Amino acid sequence: MIFVQGIDALFKVALMLIGNHRALILQCDSFESVVDFLKTTLPEMVQVQMERIINQAFELDISKELQAYEVEYHVLSEEMTFSPHHSNRHHHVKNHSPSAGSDRSSRLVERRRSSIDIEMMYRVEHQNRALKNQNIDLLEKLQHAQSQQRSLELSVHSNQIEQEKLKSHIRTLELERGALLQAVAKLRKLIPREALQQLNLALPPMPDWSPSSPAL
After folding, report:
1. Whole-prediction pTM value?
2. Which of 23, 69, 78, 136 has its Cβ near the most Cβ atoms within 10 Å?
3. What's the DSSP call for residue 42?
4. Which sequence ranges are marked TM in the entry (predicted)?
5. Distance between CA atoms of 103 and 109, rounded to whole angstroms?
6. What is the distance between the alpha carbons of residues 54 and 171, in angstroms, rounded to a whole number?
């Protein structure tokens, strides 16, 4: 890991160790107990814990943060160099020429601008991540709404099919009823009235029937 990422790997592993053991470190009541914890307790981790720490450190990206800290360090160093106390303290050692002071001032301004640009870049990246998360949430809600819409459309289509089946069944029953009425009417015409009276069959009067289509 050191060969791949360089000295940044040391910072990553250190951050992961402190982060994973933060609760135990905070329980220490003195600096000596913290040092003792780092010397004795921390190295006693099992292999699974060490592998987890290495994996977390390998996935951690702190290059931007380290660059920002480096810029801030140089800015603070320049400010300390140009502070009145520091100038009076080293006045007898070295006298700064106007051109050297101007160059250092310009470098200080450039580094401050770089620090501001990096901070703005971090803010923009944070806003972009927030917008991406918001877009993901909206897409999930849209997919859920589309799924519900498809379910409703399928339900409506199924109801329409069932309705058409019922209408077709009603038409079939009406046709059968009409055919039966016609058959009864023909039979009544074939049988003489006297025979019907002798059989004592009380048949209702036959209405005039004409096939009609059901109201849709």
Report:
1. 0.33
2. 78
3. G
4. none
5. 10
6. 77
CB-based contacts of 69, cutoff 8 Å, min separation 6: none
- Tokens of residue 85, six digits: 């106390």
Q: Using CA atoms, how far apart are residues 198 and 185, in angstroms rounded to an integer?
A: 19
Both structure tokens of 73: 């360090």
Which amino acid belongs to residue 173?
L
- The model's pLDDT over 14-54, given as tens digits with 9 standing for 90+, comes to 888 888 888 888 888 888 888 888 888 877 777 888 888 88
Determine the distance from the C-alpha atom of residue 40 to the mean position of all C-alpha atoms in its chain, rounded to a whole number. Answer: 42
Kindly report the backbone phi and psi dihedral angles of residue 7, in degrees, each rounded to the nearest multiple of 5, phi listed first: -70, -20
What is d(CA 76, CA 108) in angstroms, rounded to the nearest whole number? 9
Asked if residues 96 and 67 have their Cβ atoms less than 8 Å apart, the reply is no
Largest CA distance in the chain: 152
8-20 and 47-59 helices cross at what angle (nearest 10)?
120
